[in-house]
Automatic annotation (TrEMBL):
PROSITE patterns: HELICASE_ATP_BIND_1, HELICASE_CTER. It comes from Malaciobacter marinus. Residues 180-328 form the Helicase C-terminal domain. This is ATP-dependent RNA helicase SUPV3L1/SUV3. GO terms for molecular function: ATP binding; helicase activity; hydrolase activity. Keywords: ATP-binding, Helicase, Hydrolase, Nucleotide-binding.
Length: 510
């Protein structure tokens, strides 16, 4: 009996990833890779192909891009559905679906699928989703779009799959120039984007510049709706300067003439380091938008940062190398749990990382966010393993007390099978005074995103998706108005009690 169990375990630990997607394997798929730099028209060309297909799928890296793809199809008089982790707009007559890449349905076959920003397969947190989509997307024809650093990776995956691959190369539509002299803040021209690498730095620059310019801001903590509105203001010339983090590097098409880096160092989650050539190229490519400008310019606001750009920019782009990271599946989780006799999500994830072997260019990997949430979930009693797995992938920001408290209450509701109504954690004042005021509202919007994600997974337990969406619109409107104000740094305002303006509701109301 022991030998049989050991053999079953060894079979479980040796996985041929392509065999996990039988529908894709049955379709005799044709792969295409539209490869080129930003501003080369590759995604536009792919979308034109999608519109001509009888049925199709657009897999986006961001909710914002999935929405833009959906609206593009609808404006072309095509019936479409939108599916993200937070919202679903279903059309029974839809021939096309726009989705965030994690929400792909591996049982829905289509004629053509676009997998956008394929270089993301190298991302530590989300790369697994691109790997799964490339291998398992059930479409007769797959068009991948991405940068040249993903070319070797795509070739290796096609070879592993033994599927035909056609490479279509795109060139940038206009020239991009690296400036020789740094630009002072007082010398900024309209249609310039300043790049900083933290929310705090973005807001500091905004406070400094809005005395002289109309300013839009974009950073990761803002909801997609607010980012979209700020981008619209810049696009429609309601603002002349954009201040952003590297959040603009993916998919935001804006009429930027010049991109200026305000710093050349960023915190990558482990340490503060200089930005590399891949990061510079991805961000800088947003300058000189074709159709708006005949050429684009890249520069910096200090000599030191410009010197770093000149040093890095001439380097070859770093190619993505195998092995490619694979996340544990629900089936593997259940199988390993039975064999090593534990319901601890942390222990199963560790065992998966240490012992799982994949045929082909893959390696077992654990997602940092899953490891963090698994510690919380393993402390809860009477929580089924399948629910732990699902909840461990929820969009949780552990730095936010509002979100952590809500997450804890939502887990308790799942355990007790108890209905949870959406209740806001804060009461909005008439306007934000400090940057911290704004941060709390941003976190409340993220809490709503968590609730909406759970309402998709557990619709009976989290039934207030409409109410939560309406509240999100109200909070987003407040954020949009606040971003136009001159917000003080909380350190300048520490003599005022924040709690008077944002009275917290009791925890039981989550």
């Amino acid at each position: 009996m022991k030998d049989i169990l050991q053999k079953q375990l060894q079979n479980l630990l040796n996985c041929d990833l392509k065999s996990q997607f039988p529908l894709a394997r049955s379709l005799n798929r044709k792969l295409k890779f539209f490869v080129g730099p930003t501003n080369s028209g590759k995604t536009y060309s792919a979308m034109q192909k999608l519109k001509q297909s009888n049925s199709g799928l657009y897999l986006a890296p961001l909710r914002l891009l999935a929405l833009e793809g959906y609206e593009d199809l609808k404006s072309s008089n095509l019936e479409a559905s939108l599916i993200t982790g937070e919202e679903q707009i279903f059309d029974e007559d839809a021939s096309h679906v726009c989705s965030t890449i994690e929400m792909i349905d591996f049982d829905l076959d289509v004629d053509l699928a676009i997998i956008d920003e394929v270089q993301m397969l190298d991302d530590d947190e989300r790369g697994w989703a691109w790997v799964n989509a490339i291998i398992g997307c059930p479409a007769k024809q797959i068009i991948m779009t991405g940068s040249v650093n993903a070319l070797d990776a795509v070739k290796k995956l096609a070879q592993y799959l033994d599927e035909d691959l056609e490479i279509v190369k795109f060139k940038r539509k206009n020239e991009l120039h690296l400036m020789e002299k740094h630009t002072l803040l007082k010398e900024l021209e309209p249609q310039t984007a300043l790049i900083a690498f933290s929310r705090n730095d973005v807001l500091k620059l905004k406070q400094k510049l809005q005395k002289y310019h109309k300013v839009s801001v974009i950073y990761g903590n803002l909801s997609p709706e607010v980012r979209r509105d700020e981008a619209r203001r810049f696009r429609e010339k309601q603002s002349d300067i954009l201040i952003a983090t590297d959040a603009i590097a993916m998919g935001l098409n804006l009429p930027i003439k010049t991109i200026l880096f305000t710093n050349h160092k960023k915190f990558d989650g482990i340490s503060k380091r200089g930005i590399n050539v891949n990061e510079i190229v991805q961000i800088a490519g947003r300058a000189g938008r074709y159709g708006h400008h005949e050429e684009g310019f890249i520069g910096a606001t200090s000599r030191e940062t410009l010197k770093h750009l000149h040093k890095e920019y001439i380097k070859p782009v770093k190619t993505i190398k195998p092995p490619f990271k694979v996340k544990i599946s629900a089936q593997q989780l259940e199988g390993l749990s039975a064999h090593i006799k534990t319901k601890s999500l942390q222990k199963i994830l560790k065992f998966f990382l240490d012992n799982m072997y994949f045929d082909g260019p893959f390696i077992a990997s654990n997602i940092g966010s899953m490891l963090t949430t698994s510690k919380i979930l393993d402390q809860k009693n009477n929580l089924k393993l399948e629910d732990k797995y699902m909840l461990s992938q929820a969009p949780v920001t552990v730095k936010s007390p509002i979100i952590l408290q809500a997450y804890d209450a939502y887990i308790a509701a799942v355990i007790k099978n108890k209905v949870v109504r959406y209740k806001p954690s804060i009461t909005l004042p008439k306007k934000a005074i400090t940057q911290r005021d704004l941060l709390l509202v941003e976190d409340e919007v993220k809490k709503i995103s968590l609730y909406l994600w759970l309402s998709y997974k557990f619709p009976k337990l989290f039934p207030d998706s409409v109410k939560a969406s309406i509240s999100r619109a109200s909070f987003n409107s407040f954020i949009e108005k606040s971003l136009k104000l001159n917000l003080k740094d909380e350190r300048e305002n520490n003599n005022k009690k924040f709690s008077n303006k944002f009275p917290p509701r009791r925890r039981k109301r989550f």
